[in-house]
Amino acid sequence: MKIGIIGAGNIGGTVAQHFVDAGHEVMISNSRGPETLTDLVDELGPNAQAGTVSEAADFGDIAMEAIPFSAYESLPADALSGKIVISAANYYPARDGMMDLAETHTDTIAEHLEDSRVVKAFNETYWETLRDGQRPDADLDDRLAIFLAGDDEEAKEVVAGLIKDIGFAPVDAGPLTEGGRHIEPGSPIYTEPMTASEARTRLAALQTTVAAYEHGYYDPSKEITVQELADELDMSEESLSEQLQQGSEQLISQYLE
Ligand SMILES: NC(=O)c1ccc[n+]([C@@H]2O[C@H](COP(=O)([O-])OP(=O)(O)OC[C@H]3O[C@@H](n4cnc5c(N)ncnc54)[C@H](OP(=O)(O)O)[C@@H]3O)[C@@H](O)[C@H]2O)c1
């Protein structure tokens, strides 16, 4: 597959190396121009080349952005139109400055790339875990998880395939907004290295706890019983109680850390 990468730092460079090692063709770019990427391209190997940002955007059917969030409006929306765009950027106010955001960080980028098929991925794995954590010979359940979120199921399938190619396991967190908020800074599962089976268990507990909150379960005036909530969420009372306990534990320990 031909993949254009915008951003050649910790994340862009690390993911580029994995893609090249898995047999994909990569064009990598930064804001300063291809001539500043000669050493990186030599390291990446023969399946890599450097280009400008717009050349990288044009390069394949799939592109990835891994740039500072504060620069997201420089992403070339026209050149990325119709393409699958993997979005790895996270917003940190102290680093990026105060900005007006949509509901999640990636929703903000997706609004800018309104004609692209945006998939949020590689944003919640620390770059050194990404560099060293691949386990291509392990069963998928035992590999380290890489979460993804997006509204385009076919695009997510393609990105999930790339994640498998590089020795990790894709775990679908759901649509861009509802799923995306579970894998952004502030979530208990953000940057926590975990196997795919652990990732699915922890994600499900968080999703159920949020659903319980949205159904008014934590509002005493609504007097919703566990049985009523279990019926509403179409799950057994026992697994609902277990997930609420696990979800609350994750959220409270995150708050206390
Ligand atoms: N570090 C992590 O562990 C990690 C994990 C997950 C997600 N993320 C997110 O991924 C993004 C990148 O993080 P990083 O750690 O890889 O940062 P980094 O090492 O500082 O790399 C950023 C790269 O983006 C390039 N760049 C900056 N502005 C650009 C622009 N307008 N157009 C094109 N390229 C541009 C930089 O090169 P020039 O300055 O030369 O242009 C550099 O190659 C951030 O949003 C971060 O929150 C980071």
From TrEMBL:
Keyword Transcription: yes
Species annotation: Haloplanus vescus
Domain HTH cro/C1-type: 207-240
Protein name per the record: HTH cro/C1-type domain-containing protein
GO molecular function per UniProt: oxidoreductase activity
SUPFAM superfamilies per UniProt: NAD(P)-binding Rossmann-fold domains
Matches recorded under InterPro entries: Cro/C1-type_HTH, HTH_bacterioopsin, NAD(P)-bd_dom_sf, P5C_Rdtase_cat_N, STEAP_metalloreductase
Keyword annotations of the record: Oxidoreductase, Transcription, Transcription regulation
Coiled-coil segments: none
Pfam families per record: F420_oxidored (PF03807), HTH_10 (PF04967)
